[in-house]
C-alpha cells in the first residue's frame, strides 16, 4: 500500500466529510434541513472533478456522510432522503448500525479479480520460459506472436510473471481483495466488490487500499460531538500511535488541543498497555507450557477475532488479558466512580469500533474515533496547533516506554518479554510475530502444527502494527521512527514499574467479563 500517508483525492474527500459532519454537530442546527446541503458544500460547482459526473460524486459523498454519522447505506432500489434516520442518531448513546465496514456499490469500479495477462511488451521470444514454467499448461506460444493465457486453466501462481525476461506478463488483483488477509472480499453479480461479513474482522485494510474510495467504515463523530455540546464529562483516552499524526501537535499540547474540542481530560492509553503487559507476562509464566503449549497476545482485536474464528480449537491460547483500551477505560471509570463520565478512545484502529460495540465493553468505552476522524473535528473547530499553549499539569500520564511501544509491530511481545524477565531474569522466552492478517494466519497454522510450542506469539492485523492502522494519517515508516523517539523519552522503561500497577487488583476481578 504505497499510498499510505499520501494525501490523495480520496483522503481529501474523507477528511472533508469528517470535518463537515463534525461542524454540523457542533453547530447544532436543524439537522434534517442542513444534512442534504452538505454534499453540495463538499462537492461544489456544476462539473464533476473526479468522475465526470457531479451528480454521482454528490451521491457517493451523501452515503459517506451517512456512514460517518453511523447510519446505514440507503437501499439502491428505494427513494430515501440523505437525512433518513437522523432523528435516531441525535442521541449520545447511539452506536453505529452494523456492519462496520461497508461498500458504496455505485462508487466501486468493479475491478477485475486476480488475473494474469500478457501485455504488449511481449516480444515473442524464442526461449518463451513462461510456457515452460507453467504447471497447468495455461500458456501457449505461436511463432511470431505473443504468448496467450488460457484463463480457465491459469491458477494465478505467478511463475510466468517471475521468469519473463521482458517483464511483459503481469499479475493483477483488485486492491481491496489483495489487502484483505481474510479472503473476505469477492464479487457480486455485477462484478462489484462484496464483503463476506462472516469472514471480515474489520481491520480496515480494504478501505485504505481502495483507490476509488468505495469502502467506508461507520463512525461516531456526530454522537461524540453531541455529548461534548451537551456538557457531558468526556475523557479522551489516546493511543500512543498519535505521535506524528497531527503536524505541529506535540505531546505537551495534546491536552490543550483536546480541550478546544470540549474534552474534560485526556489520558494516554499507554498506561493500559502497561497493565496489559503485566497481565500477559503473568499469564505466560503461569500457563505456558503447563496448561497451554503457547500463548498469543490479545491487544489487536482483528488478530484476536481472526484467531478465534479460524482456529477455534486454539481460543484458550489467546491471552485473557483485557486490551489497553479497555483497561484504561475501566481504570478511569473506577477512579471516577460516582461521577457521570464518558470515555472516548482515540486511535489508529477501525477494529476498535467493533471491539467497543461488544456488550461487556459498551459500559466502559462510550465512543471510538480514529485519528483521521479526530482531525476532522480539529478542522471543524479551526484548532491551530502552533498557537496552542499548554497549561501546568498538561503533561500526559506516565506511560512507560514498554506501553508506548505497543503501537508498533514487535512492541507488545518485547514489552511482555521484558516484564517476564523482571520476574524471572534467567528464563528464555522464544517469540514469533506476524503483521498483516495473511501472515498472522500462517503463524497460527504453524502453531497448530506444534512448531511454536513454548512460544509467545504476537499478531498485528495491520502492516507495521498500529502505526499502519486504517485510521492513521501519517506515512507509517516515518510515524514508526517518531514513535521510537517518543518511546525513548519515557522516564520509566519497564511496564512492571508503572505507577498504576496497584490498580490491577480490582481489574483482575473483572478479567472474565472481557
Number of helices: 20
How many E-type strands?
15
Strand pairing plus helix content: what structural class?
alpha/beta
Helix content: 25-40%
Q: Strand order within the widest sheet?
A: 10-9-12-13
* Main sheet characteristics: 4 strands, parallel
Report the sheet-strand fraction.
5-15%
Low-confidence residue ranges: none
Global morphology: globular
Whole-angstrom Rg? 25 Å
Mean pLDDT: 93
Q: Give the termini distance in whole angstroms.
A: 33 Å
Name its key features:
4-stranded parallel sheet; 514 residues; 3-stranded parallel sheet; alpha/beta; 20 helices
Task: Give the arrangement of secondary structure elements.
Layout: H1 9-27, H2 31-34, H3 38-42, H4 54-69, E1 101-103, E2 115-118, H5 129-133, E3 139-140, E4 148-149, H6 159-163, E5 169-172, H7 175-179, E6 185-187, E7 193-195, E8 215-217, H8 221-229, E9 233-238, H9 254-261, E10 265-268, H10 270-287, E11 295-296, H11 301-310, H12 324-335, E12 341-347, H13 351-356, H14 359-362, E13 367-370, H15 371-380, H16 401-404, H17 411-423, E14 430-435, H18 437-448, E15 455-460, H19 476-488, H20 504-508
Parallel strand pairs: 9-10, 9-12, 11-15, 12-13, 14-15
Antiparallel strand pairs: 1-8, 2-5, 3-4, 6-7
Helix pairs in contact: 1-4, 1-8, 1-15, 10-12, 10-17, 11-18
Amino acid at each position: 500500500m504505497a499510498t499510505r500517508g499520501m494525501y490523495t483525492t480520496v483522503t481529501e474527500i474523507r477528511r472533508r466529510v469528517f470535518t463537515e459532519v463534525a461542524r454540523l454537530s457542533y453547530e447544532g442546527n436543524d439537522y434534517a434541513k442542513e444534512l442534504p446541503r452538505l454534499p453540495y458544500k463538499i462537492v461544489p460547482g456544476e462539473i464533476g472533478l473526479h468522475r465526470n459526473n457531479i451528480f454521482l460524486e454528490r451521491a457517493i459523498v451523501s452515503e459517506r456522510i451517512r456512514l460517518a454519522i453511523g447510519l446505514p447505506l440507503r437501499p439502491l432500489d428505494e427513494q430515501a432522503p440523505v437525512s433518513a434516520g437522523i432523528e435516531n442518531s441525535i442521541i449520545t448513546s447511539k452506536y453505529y448500525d452494523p456492519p462496520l465496514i461497508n461498500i458504496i456499490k455505485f462508487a466501486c469500479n468493479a475491478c477485475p479479480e486476480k488475473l494474469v495477462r500478457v501485455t504488449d511488451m511481449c516480444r515473442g521470444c524464442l526461449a518463451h520460459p513462461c510456457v515452460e514454467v507453467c504447471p497447468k499448461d495455461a500458456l501457449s506460444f505461436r511463432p511470431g506472436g505473443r504468448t496467450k493465457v488460457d484463463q480457465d486453466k491459469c491458477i494465478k501462481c505467478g511463475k510466468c510473471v517471475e521468469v519473463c525476461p521482458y517483464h511483459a506478463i503481469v499479475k493483477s488483483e483488485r486492491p481491496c481483495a489483495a489487502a484483505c488477509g481474510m479472503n473476505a472480499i469477492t464479487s457480486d453479480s455485477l462484478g462489484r466488490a462484496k464483503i463476506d461479513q462472516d469472514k471480515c474482522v474489520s481491520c480496515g485494510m480494504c478501505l485504505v487500499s481502495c483507490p476509488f474510495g468505495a469502502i467506508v467504515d461507520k463512525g461516531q463523530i456526530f454522537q461524540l460531538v453531541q455529548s461534548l455540546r451537551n456538557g457531558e464529562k468526556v475523557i479522551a483516552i489516546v493511543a500512543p500511535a498519535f505521535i506524528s499524526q497531527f503536524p505541529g501537535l506535540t505531546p505537551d499540547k495534546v491536552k490543550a488541543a483536546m480541550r478546544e474540542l470540549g474534552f474534560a481530560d485526556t489520558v494516554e492509553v499507554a498506561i493500559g498497555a502497561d497493565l496489559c503487559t503485566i497481565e500477559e507476562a503473568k499469564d505466560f509464566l503461569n500457563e505456558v507450557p503447563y496448561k497451554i503449549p503457547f500463548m498469543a497476545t490479545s491487544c489487536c482485536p482483528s488478530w484476536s477475532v481472526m484467531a478465534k474464528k479460524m482456529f477455534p480449537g486454539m481460543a484458550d491460547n489467546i491471552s485473557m488479558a483485557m486490551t489497553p483500551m479497555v483497561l484504561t477505560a475501566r481504570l478511569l471509570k473506577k477512579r471516577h466512580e460516582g461521577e457521570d463520565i464518558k470515555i472516548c478512545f482515540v486511535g489508529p484502529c477501525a477494529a476498535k469500533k467493533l471491539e467497543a460495540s461488544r456488550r461487556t465493553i459498551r459500559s466502559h468505552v462510550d465512543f471510538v474515533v480514529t485519528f483521521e476522524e479526530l482531525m476532522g473535528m480539529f478542522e471543524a473547530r479551526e484548532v491551530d496547533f502552533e498557537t496552542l499553549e499548554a497549561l501546568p499539569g498538561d503533561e500526559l500520564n506516565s506511560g512507560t516506554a514498554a506501553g508506548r511501544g505497543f503501537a508498533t509491530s514487535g512492541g507488545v511481545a518485547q514489552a511482555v518479554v521484558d516484564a517476564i524477565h523482571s520476574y524471572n531474569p534467567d528464563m528464555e522466552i522464544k517469540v514469533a510475530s506476524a503483521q498483516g492478517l495473511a501472515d498472522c494466519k500462517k503463524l497460527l497454522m504453524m502453531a497448530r502444527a506444534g512448531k511454536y510450542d513454548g512460544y509467545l506469539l504476537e499478531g498485528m492485523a495491520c502492516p507495521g502494527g498500529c502505526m499502519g492502522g486504517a485510521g492513521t494519517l501519517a506515512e507509517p515508516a516515518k510515524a514508526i521512527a517518531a514513535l521510537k523517539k517518543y518511546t525513548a523519552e519515557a522516564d520509566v522503561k519497564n511496564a512492571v514499574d508503572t505507577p498504576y500497577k496497584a490498580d490491577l487488583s480490582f481489574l483482575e476481578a473483572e478479567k472474565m467479563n472481557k
